[in-house]
């Protein structure tokens, strides 16, 4: 150890020059950093869910769209509103990446020819708006209210709300920058229509993608400097040394700059999770640097000269800091097993950052301290044994006196809070990723309240034979399914397929709104309909080229993914009882099936982190009795905070899923510092009381201070409009505070039961 520290002191100028210089060189790469908010980032290239969705798009086209909604309290059927619809419809047709536009004005109205009742006409519902009189508009409204193909789809039942839907091209979702390009055009259109006085609401894939991106970029630009500022203020309050503030902050700035630069150099793009990596690294780096600086100050206050204090600091902190860095890295790296790509990349990158932060801390901080040689006033020594502080002694006596009460109270609290686990739900619905005041979330709520279900399932029904979708029995089965689904699940607002077209034709021809028994008649209806449609409005997005597969779209209310999975399972099981089969597809289905990945991430990452860190502790302490002492204080906070979530009604989402392993990785740091210092005191032949006082003197206060800084850093995320970050920040901050209390109360109380004798059983059995 002495040689290692001597090398740092010898090459101090080289170290403090090289690290900042290397950071500056790598930082040049950050100008090439890109942000990706696409839905595809949540799935790996080999994801079966993604492959299934891509196959759906290749067959039927895109299920994604851009949606413009507005409302007129006096009713949509007036010339001003209709002109707005017509203009927006025409503009969307001319927009890149949009394959089809559906609106009230270009709705293909199926009706009889007034001059020849045997002739069926299909034309735009609204034509030559300026030529329409008040009575004409009233008649159009009456007709529209009876059109099942548009009521509660593109116009509300009360005819006051309408939407214009631009269906995206299949390749739009795979093209980086497509959403940004579309939104630039849409925002320009909305700006041009502001003179109408209407308030426009936007929804659809491009809105979600740009909202992901904008919120992610806002969070990193806002919270990174904010957390740094908070950390600097707290460090100043703690140390009252500007050098302590700058050295600690310097470690984290160097670390996250290097890591982000390397990520950019390797071609990784930022997303809503990895954009927060600097804040994670701030939390990790500050913890290590604070422990070093704290022990350094204690040494200087005790009368050690600069070099001796640096030697003492690294001697006391190198092992625990190394162990905490490794366990933190393990906590983050355990997220690498996740199938959710943003979680995987965040975990692996931050794990590397934890190791890099350790290297920079043990090299840069001592080297800088050697150069600065700050002035520290020596504190007069006390005459008590081992010069232990009075507070530390009082703490040790408190633990010894109330150890039984602490253990009993903790057990009762644990049992009560653990009951909240029964109320837990898992939710990965993308709509719930945003706060209620986010414009996209407001649009979704507005659509659901006034128009239709804003979410959708794409049900692909296999008729089993070529041209099978024209079969009367098949279509009647589809119609029965639609009715059964809406009866079983009121959240299924309506269904849309070629069945509706056939029923409309039959209504016009025979005044019977049902599926005819004649398959040839159905084929004639569909042929007539397809031949009458204008270019771009074809029906090839409703069936495959062999006319074997039928696409049925279900408009759904926003529900928890648990409910989504229940409905998806019911749909597929319903079709298994028929001669046909069905598969639910689309983006809603994709994110619903992420629920299993969320749960797997939470469970597997925690188990992996526990297993690896337990092995590390066994190799360090070489005593099996230390394993439960190590695990209990770190598993307990996770269980308690998840129980609290159950009581508060907070669902487990992606943000919470990643918090488990991270909480474990960071919370373990305090346990390691506690146990290493305890082991050190016992090896010095301290009795149990003095050993606890030694721990509090040299680790306990630093643990409190680092937890305050870390919790402050994470709680800032609660301000985010991106709920995954907000929930993650809240849960992590609470858990770290719980972990600190468990480490400073329950852990020593358990130690008292196991190792409370004058001589240490745990240390005696070691081979030193």
TrEMBL record:
Domain SSD: 251-371, 631-753
Matching InterPro entries: Acrflvin-R (IPR001036), MMPL_dom (IPR004869), Mycobact_MmpL (IPR050545), SSD (IPR000731)
PROSITE patterns for this protein: SSD
GO MF annotations in UniProt: transmembrane transporter activity
TM helices/strands, residue ranges: 222-239, 246-266, 278-297, 318-337, 349-372, 406-424, 602-621, 628-650, 656-676, 697-717, 729-751
Pfam family, one: MMPL
GO cellular component: plasma membrane
Cellular localisation: Cell membrane
The protein's name in its UniProt record: MMPL family transporter
Membrane topology: Multi-pass membrane protein
Keywords assigned by UniProt, alphabetized: Cell membrane, Membrane, Transmembrane, Transmembrane helix
Protein's organism: Sulfurimonas sediminis
Source domain of life: Bacteria
């Amino acid at each position: 150890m002495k040689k290692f520290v001597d090398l740092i002191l010898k090459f101090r100028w080289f170290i403090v020059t090289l690290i900042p210089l290397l950071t500056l060189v790598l930082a040049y790469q950050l100008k090439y950093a890109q942000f990706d908010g696409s839905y595809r980032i949540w799935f790996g290239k080999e994801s079966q869910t993604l492959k299934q969705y891509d196959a759906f798009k290749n067959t039927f086209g895109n299920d994604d769209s851009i949606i413009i909604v507005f409302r007129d309290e006096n009713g949509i059927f007036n010339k001003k509103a209709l002109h707005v619809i017509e203009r927006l419809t025409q503009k969307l047709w001319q927009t890149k990446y949009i394959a089809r536009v559906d609106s009230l004005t270009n709705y293909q109205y199926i009706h009889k020819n007034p001059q020849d009742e045997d002739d069926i006409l299909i034309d735009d519902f609204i034509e030559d708006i300026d030529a329409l009189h008040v009575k004409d508009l009233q008649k159009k409204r009456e007709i529209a209210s009876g059109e099942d193909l548009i009521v509660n789809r593109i116009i509300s039942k009360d005819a006051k709300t309408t939407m214009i839907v631009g269906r995206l091209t299949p390749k739009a979702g795979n093209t980086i920058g497509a959403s940004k390009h579309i939104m630039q055009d849409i925002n320009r259109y909305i700006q041009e229509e502001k003179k109408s006085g209407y308030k426009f609401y936007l929804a659809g894939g491009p809105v979600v993608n740009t909202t992901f991106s904008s919120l992610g970029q806002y969070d990193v630009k806002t919270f990174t400097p904010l957390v740094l500022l908070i950390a600097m203020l707290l460090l100043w309050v703690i140390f009252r040394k500007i050098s302590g503030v700058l050295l600690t902050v310097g470690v984290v700035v160097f670390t996250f700059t290097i890591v982000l630069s390397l990520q950019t150099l390797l071609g990784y793009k930022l997303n809503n999770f990895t954009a927060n990596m600097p804040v994670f690294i701030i939390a990790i780096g500050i913890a290590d640097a604070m422990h070093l600086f704290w022990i350094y100050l204690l040494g200087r206050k005790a009368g050690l000269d600069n070099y001796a204090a640096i030697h003492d600091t690294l001697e006391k902190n190198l092992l625990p800091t190394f162990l905490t860095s490794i366990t933190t890295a393990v906590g983050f790296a355990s997220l690498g097993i996740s199938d959710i790509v943003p979680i995987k990349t965040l975990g692996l990158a931050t794990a590397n950052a934890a190791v890099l932060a350790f290297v920079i801390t043990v090299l840069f901080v001592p080297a800088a301290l050697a150069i600065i040689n700050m002035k520290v006033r020596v504190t007069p020594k006390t005459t008590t044994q081992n010069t232990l502080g009075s507070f530390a002694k009082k703490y040790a006596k408190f633990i010894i006196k109330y150890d039984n009460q602490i253990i009993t109270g903790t057990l009762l609290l644990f049992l009560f809070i653990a009951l909240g686990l029964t109320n837990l739900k898992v939710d990965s619905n993308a709509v719930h990723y945003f706060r209620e005041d986010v414009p996209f979330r407001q649009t979704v709520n507005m659509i659901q309240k006034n128009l239709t279900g804003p979410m959708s399932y794409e049900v692909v029904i296999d008729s089993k034979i070529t041209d099978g979708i024209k079969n009367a029995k098949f279509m009647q089965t589809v119609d029965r399914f639609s009715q059964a689904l809406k009866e079983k699940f009121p959240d299924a607002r309506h269904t849309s397929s070629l069945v509706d077209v056939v029923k409309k034709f039959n209504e016009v021809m025979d005044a019977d709104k049902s599926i005819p028994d004649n398959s040839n008649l159905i084929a004639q209806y569909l042929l007539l309909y397809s031949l009458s449609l204008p270019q771009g409005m074809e029906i090839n997005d409703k069936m495959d080229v062999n006319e074997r597969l039928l696409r049925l779209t279900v408009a759904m209310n926003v529900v928890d993914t648990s409910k989504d999975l229940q409905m998806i399972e019911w749909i597929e099981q319903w079709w298994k009882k028929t001669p046909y089969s069905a598969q639910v597809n689309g983006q809603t289905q994709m994110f619903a099936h992420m629920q299993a990945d969320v749960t797997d991430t939470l469970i597997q990452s925690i188990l992996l982190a526990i297993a690896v860190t337990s092995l590390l502790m066994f190799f360090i302490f070489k005593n099996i009795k230390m394993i439960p002492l190590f695990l209990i204080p770190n598993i307990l906070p996770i269980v308690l905070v998840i129980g609290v979530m159950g009581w508060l009604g907070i669902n487990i989402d992606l943000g919470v899923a990643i918090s488990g392993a991270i909480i474990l990785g960071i919370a373990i740091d305090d346990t390691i510092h506690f146990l290493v210092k305890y082991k050190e005191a016992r090896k010095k032949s301290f009795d149990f009381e003095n050993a606890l006082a030694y721990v509090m003197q040299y680790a306990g206060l630093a643990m409190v201070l680092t937890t305050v800084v870390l919790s402050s850093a994470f709680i800032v995320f609660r301000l985010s409009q991106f709920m995954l970050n907000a929930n993650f920040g809240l849960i992590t901050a609470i858990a770290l505070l719980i972990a600190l209390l468990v480490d400073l109360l329950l852990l020593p109380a358990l130690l008292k039961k196991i190792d409370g004798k004058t001589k240490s059983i745990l240390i005696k059995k070691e081979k030193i």
